[in-house]
Amino acid sequence: MILGALKPTNQGDKRSTLHPETIKPLLDMGINIIFERSLGKDIDIDDEVFEALGARAVSRDECLQSSQVIYSSSTLDKEEIAKLKNETVFIGLLNPFENREQFKYFADQNVTAISMEFIPRITRAQKMDVLSSQSNLAGYVAVIESAKHLHSALPMMMTAAGTLKPAKVFVVGVGVAGLQAIATAKRLGARVEAFDTRPEVEEQVKSLGAKFVKIDLGETEQTNQGYAKELSTEQLKKQQELQQKVCANSDIVITTAQIFGKPAPKLINSETISKMKKGSIIFDMAVESGGNVEGSVKDSIEIVNGVKILGFSNLHSFVANHASFALSNNLNNLLLDFFDKESKKFVVNLNDEVLASAVFTKDKEIIKEDFR
User: Which residue ranges does the record assign to the Alanine dehydrogenase/pyridine nucleotide transhydrogenase N-terminal domain (predicted)?
Assistant: First the structure.
């Protein structure tokens, strides 16, 4: 079997779908690996490093045309999909809700398209969960970048010149990214508070040494995979009002709330921003899906009433080497779980709950009705 690894088409994405520390298990299985030239350029890995391990650098076209399985951190356009071999398995981050038309092209070409965003949140699939591995790193980046733009130190310091108070960090949304943001801010010595619509995460917040802010929104729910469900208009308004005081007292506010397949909810409005201290920071981690913060702009720093609103995208690419290591392992774990040693093929078994959730096209059909 030939596995091909492609460079991302999104210029802001610096990740490599192969990493030198993760390809040995594939080679040990007898899988032949080819990759698009300069695949690891943005993580400071030369082609020669991969080739010394047993992979082979080729053109993008050869990668598309010769592979039975393809790794990619971004989707392809119609012309490139047409270059894929019959029965190719395409495994990657397909951003399905914004690229629905791609599935028609994959189906027409008889390509099995697997979206890593749809890997189910079950125990067995944790090792394949790209959203979690990349969100974890994004939470770390959000704190580091916020600290860089804050004109104060994060930890308390007792000096001969006086005691420096610790910075106050407020994290809104305690999913994977939020938990890592809390942990990182605490390691840096900040005083951390956090809020989530799911009261059951209070213990997780406290276990990291942070304070859980209690805001009574009435009955709230989470999905069967652990995501927070969308709030009603009344609940959202109540959250905005009740968290204003916490935001006003914070030096850094980090928002992480996203709803899978929908625009991000607006959690910080202009009224809240007007009550915050000049020089304080708001980091909108949801800017790519519409943003949690009124006035946030993708890949921009906006200053409103003296408050800096950071709207950086592709946060995983700020730590691209580790992001590539995690992404590559996620992809490999999926591939090896369904790799048949005898036939040397990736077996697409739709009776398996992992593939039943993540496969979008197979045998010239679009499997998921909502994307037809």
Answer: 4-138
